[in-house]
Amino acid sequence: MSDEGRAALTEPAKDLGPVKEQLRTDGYAVVPDVLTADEVAALRSRLVQLAADEREAARALGAPESDEAQFVRTLVAKAQEFRDLAVHPTALELARHILGPDLLLWEAFANRVPPGGPAGGAHIDQGPMPSDITWPVVCAFLYMLDDFTDENGATFVVPGSHRRHRDELTPESFAAGRVTATGTAGSVIVMDGRVWHSIGKNRTSDFWRHGALMFYSVPYLRVKENWAFLTPPEIVQDASPLLRELMGFKMWRSLGGPKADKAFIGGQAGVSSYDGQLLKEDEASGWGAVRPPWLN
Ligand SMILES: O=C(O)CCC(=O)C(=O)O
């Protein structure tokens, strides 16, 4: 998988050795200065606008007001700023370090933790997996779009909890082991999918804390957000080959494509079928065997 196609974000040169060592011992690490001030400002203002639009839409549907964090989901379908964030090279290097060379984008959302907002529920990100999967199959990158402080709801994390069994995660063990992952805007918290964490309590009276989260998984796992279903075709069409690959629009080994149909059309090499039409494999375009007819 190459990183070509990444557009707007700049890539800071970093020695990630100490980060990888902390991921091994603690299961998480805070990497400073991964985003520039301009990138933070652009992501934050897009998030504020999307959140306002979705709040308004929810009000119009009669949804009750909540004092909890607001989540804006499926971000790669909604804004270029977040499509660029999904292919951030520092994150992809660390995700490949945790999970292996081939990845899927598992989930992409952002949150706003309101003044006075309560702490979130303690969890691990690979919670849907059977508990006898004891290795990381998911990892998370939480980009700080504000300074994360003790007061404003910075993330609680339990160092070393990626090496504990998740059945040990109780409110008491979480409270006993947690630290607050603080940092300046533009930093990212990298988390192994097994590490225990939650949103912190926002004890300010007037400050909304903003974060954007990109999750990656191993390529053989069902993704949390179904990109093929949730992303408008024109967005997929314009996405870089790398982003399309991360969204699962390229076959990985025998997964995620139409090849199973081959038997029905005589098993010709390089040809498959989709909805009664023949598809030709198209490695050159970066689509592998998966090139739905609605894409020109
Ligand atoms: O925003 C945070 O501090 C953590 C968010 C989180 O862990 C989640 O929603 O999975």
Structural description of this entry:
The structure is a single chain. With 296 residues, the protein is α+β, with helices and mostly antiparallel strands. It folds into two domains: 17-228, q2cbj1_9rhob like domain (Jelly Rolls), CATH 2.60.120.620; 255-296, no CATH class. The chain has eight helices and eleven strands. The strands form three sheets. The chain has a six-stranded antiparallel β-sheet. Strand 10 (271-274) and strand 11 form a beta hairpin. The longest helix has 24 residues, at 37-60. The radius of gyration is 20 Å and the shape is globular. The two termini are 23 Å apart. Bound molecules: 2-oxoglutaric acid (AKG). It comes from Pseudonocardia sulfidoxydans NBRC 16205. GO terms for molecular function: 2-oxoglutarate-dependent dioxygenase activity; iron ion binding. It holds the Pfam family PhyH. This is Phytanoyl-CoA dioxygenase.
Gist of the model:
The chain is an alpha+beta fold. The chain has helices spanning 17-26, 37-60, 80-86, 89-99, 171-177, 227-230, 233-238, 241-246, and strands at residues 28-31, 70-72, 104-113, 138-144, 155-157, 179-181, 188-192, 197-198, 209-217, 271-274, 277-280.
